[in-house]
């Protein structure tokens, strides 16, 4: 799809919109149980977050862990629905079809009849429930589509990151290559490719609300470094993203209390940018892989831009390892000369 593409979907307002506004927690409790409990967080009258996971460390049992635990449940994971009248755009589909179906059923009870799915990128914790939306338009960056087609057999066999398999995998059928606008009633929804975290990223901007649905481009406590070689480019792309005009950020992985209150400020973006810069700038330190997470983000925690969460200690250790390997013997770039 090309720049300035605008897709508009007909809506019926009135009763359907009122039904969504009137849906109560007691009614939501009647929905089928998901694989993990899901918290419903209304952000405004046309944006709702669905949040799963983030258990206290003491409640996590010892033993082998699987990719949904490590990539999503332990750090906490949100998906989002932009809705008006009888139509909704759902941003990511959780790790499994049970949870995705719960979200779809919840929205259907509120009067939604027409669904669209947008995948933020190809990582498994964002596409696990795609099959629930197999009968709907499914958007992703064209890079995500290409990646998932290539990896479909491995993902469906449970061989990409180990079990559980995602079977079947519903690959997105609409590839986005430039900014693309979808009108959900009067709500302008802008799909924006963003090569941050992974080269195939696709974020959603809601210009009318000055909100960014960030996918995995930003997260609290710290971003997970999936592509360490491109950190300088990601650093520059984050700078460009900061100029878009949004003032609130809703990440897929973050503190549920902050998300429920409407999201993060721009300090989350600044913290992420400083974090990945420091990773590279210190990659040659003799004690690099022993440097703690708090030594990287302590000031941001004090400022209230992010919060420390136990599961990110493991993510940080992984970041140190992959950055040390990627930048071993490589010259450290001058970040001050980057955009």
Describe this structure in words.
By secondary structure, the chain is an alpha/beta fold. The protein has one domain: Metallo-beta-lactamase, Chain A (4-Layer Sandwich). Helices cover 32% and strands 20% of the residues. It is built from 10 helices and 13 strands. The protein has helices at 15-22, 25-28, 67-73, 97-109, 142-157, 231-242, 256-260, 267-281, 293-303, 312-327; strands spanning 5-9, 38-44, 47-52, 77-84, 87-91, 114-118, 138-141, 174-176, 180-184, 187-193, 202-206, 211-215, 248-251. A 7-stranded mixed sheet has the order 2-3-4-5-6-7-8. The chain has a 6-stranded mixed sheet with strand order 1-9-10-11-12-13, with no helix packed on it. The longest helix has 16 residues, at 142-157. It is globular. The protein starts with a strand and ends in a 12-residue tail after the last helix. Residues 1-6 and 8-32 have low confidence and may be disordered.
């Amino acid at each position: 799809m090309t720049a300035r593409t605008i897709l508009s979907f007909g809506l019926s307002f009135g009763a359907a919109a009122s039904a969504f506004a009137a849906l109560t927690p007691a009614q939501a409790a009647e929905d089928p149980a998901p694989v993990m409990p899901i918290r419903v967080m209304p952000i405004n009258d046309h944006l709702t977050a669905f949040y799963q996971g983030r258990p206290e460390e003491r409640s996590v049992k010892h033993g082998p862990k699987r990719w949904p635990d490590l990539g999503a449940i332990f750090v906490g994971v949100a998906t989002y629905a932009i809705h008006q009248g009888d139509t909704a755009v759902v941003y990511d589909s959780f790790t499994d079809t049970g949870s995705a179906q719960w979200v779809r059923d919840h929205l259907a009870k509120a009067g939604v009849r027409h669904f669209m799915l947008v995948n933020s990128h190809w990582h498994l914790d964002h596409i696990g429930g795609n099959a629930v939306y197999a009968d709907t338009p499914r958007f992703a960056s064209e890079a995500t589509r290409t990646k998932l087609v290539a990896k479909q057999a491995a993902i469906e066999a449970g061989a990409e990151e180990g079990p559980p398999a995602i079977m079947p995998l519903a690959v997105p059928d609409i590839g986005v290559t430039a900014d693309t606008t979808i009108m959900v009633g009067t709500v302008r929804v802008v799909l924006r490719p963003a090569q941050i975290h992974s080269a195939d990223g696709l974020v959603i901007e809601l210009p009318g609300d000055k909100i960014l649905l960030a996918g995995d481009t930003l997260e609290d406590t710290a971003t997970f470094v999936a592509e360490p070689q491109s950190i300088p480019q990601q650093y520059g792309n984050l700078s460009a993203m900061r100029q878009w005009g949004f003032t609130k950020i809703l990440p897929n992985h973050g503190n549920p209390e902050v998300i429920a209150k409407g999201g993060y400020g721009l300090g989350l973006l600044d913290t992420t940018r400083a974090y990945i810069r420091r990773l590279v700038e210190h990659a040659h330190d003799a004690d690099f892989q022993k440097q703690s997470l708090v030594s990287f983000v302590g000031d941001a925690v004090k400022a209230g831009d992010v919060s420390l969460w136990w599961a990110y200690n493991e993510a940080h250790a992984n970041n140190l390892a992959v950055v040390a390997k990627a930048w071993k013997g490589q010259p450290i770039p001058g970040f001050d000369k980057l955009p």
